[in-house]
Amino acid sequence: MMLYLFKFVVGSVLLWAVYHLLLRREKLYVFSRFFLLLGLCFSAFMPLISIELPISNLPTQPFLPIYNSHETFSSLGVEPPASKLSAASTSPTFTTYDTEISVVFLVWGLYALITSVLLFRFLQNLWQIRLKIVQNEVVLKNDLRVVLLPYPTTPYSFGSYVFVNKQEYETETIEPEIWQHEQAHVQQRHSWDILLVEFFRAFAWFNPVLWLYRRAIVLNHEFLADAHVLRQHINPPVYQYLLLHRFTRSAHYSLSSSFNYQITKLRFAMMNKNTSRSRAVALQVTAILLIVVVGLAFSDLGWGQNPAPLSPTATSKIPSNPDGATSSEIAEYEAFAKKYVKKKIARNGKEVIYVGEGMIEKDRARMQELFLAMNKDQQVQQEYIMHPPMKPLPKTTPTEKELEAYKNPKVYGVWIDGKKVANTALNKYKASDFSQVFVSRLYKNAQATIGYKYKFQLDLETNTYYEKQKAAALADTKYWFWVNVEKRKSEKK
């Protein structure tokens, strides 16, 4: 969450800076309008989008046991068997950390309180505008819905309505330029832009640059409306005098488009401004390139790798008894399976299955005996089966180029012989010192616990450690209890 907030705030600041430096003083009002809106939405949503770039310096993966794949666990809805986790399990991939509940509640409570206040103010402004429409006379004028107010006011608009003083309307003292100005606001749907910004401000009030976005968007709306008027009345000095004459200090609502003295001064400066076609094209291309660069920089950018296909243990490779087990033996096995399969509700509300948790050796040995007494058909029908011991993994040695790439802490988190080490520890080794390499991508739930410091988990086994693990694997005769993967997959088809 903290990383998202950082990316949202910094990304929105950078895109606003692009507008402020390149577009603010240029006659590119339509482009500026959509740049500001796109920049605001881009900075909010790009950090949520994952973009993966191909990476080619990863070694070819050897056969990986099914219990070493977090993706496989997720697809089956089960947790990895605790007794069969590889050295990689010492990494944060399967680790969650408790947070102080009181602090979390305090932070979210404060956020909810401030957001509620801002939402209330936002809805109150909408309601007040609604009351003005309902409580006063509404007439049609040149496709505009005009709300006649009984008190003096500067003309302003919201949605498809223009709010004016009733006496001025009836005596026809409102100048044609004023009507055209408000007509531009209505026809170009400027109120929708304001509603979008107010929505962002209500929920993302912690981002201070949103206030600058709102001011820039409102100012650009006035530029657009002025340009609309001057296309029909090509006399800026006369129009400027009219605006000064029209300016009053009458109050209106923060969601409306209206005349304002500070904004009016800036509008005067832009009325005689010209931007050449070549300069306009150059500025627009530059702005688009910068928004793409910022978007990529602040997205969840990572390196993609196609993992080697997994080869789970097939029941066809497990020894069986042609005579088959008796019904009582099958019932005994299924009773053990029920005892060691537990369903729990995870923090995300989803049901997770824990297989073999807390199994004692006596029960495991009996389950192995019962399972091997079954014939092939009986084994296949079991939802949870006894898997034979894993065979030693084939020797895999990285190249010197790959070993050098592993030293980048932004890409790899390094474990050597089951222990987490700094990437600089690799400076003590040559590529030939290792006999096994595991490279696995960290998924978002794992990345969140470590602050997205790297994208891949790297597990290396030295020659001595590999030979020790290989000897232990060859000597292992114990079957282990877990999901019948083939049966589960066939049921999903």
Describe this structure in words.
The chain is α+β, with helices and mostly antiparallel strands and 493 residues long. It has 18 helices and 15 strands. It has a five-stranded mixed β-sheet, sandwiched between helices. Strand 4 and strand 5 (161-165) form a beta hairpin. Helix 4 (101-135) packs antiparallel against helix 7 (190-203). The relative contact order is 0.14. The model is unreliable at 56-74, 82-100 and 304-314 (pLDDT under 50).
Oligomer: single chain
Order of neighbouring strands in the sheet with most strands: 2-3-5-4-6
Tell me the radius of gyration: 34 Å
Using DSSP, what is the number of strands?
15
**Structural class by secondary-structure content:** alpha+beta
Write the layout of secondary structure elements.
Blueprint: H1 2-23, H2 29-45, E1 50-54, H3 70-76, H4 101-135, E2 137-141, E3 144-149, E4 156-158, E5 161-165, H5 166-170, H6 176-187, H7 190-203, H8 209-230, H9 236-246, E6 257-258, H10 261-271, H11 277-297, E7 300-304, H12 327-339, E8 341-345, E9 351-355, H13 361-372, H14 376-381, E10 384-387, H15 400-405, E11 412-416, E12 419-421, E13 434-441, H16 444-449, E14 456-462, H17 463-475, E15 480-483, H18 485-492
Parallel strand pairs: 1-7, 3-5, 11-14
Antiparallel strand pairs: 2-3, 4-5, 4-6, 8-9, 10-15, 11-12, 13-14
Observed structural traits:
493 residues, alpha+beta, 4-stranded mixed β-sheet, 18 helices, 49% helix, elongated
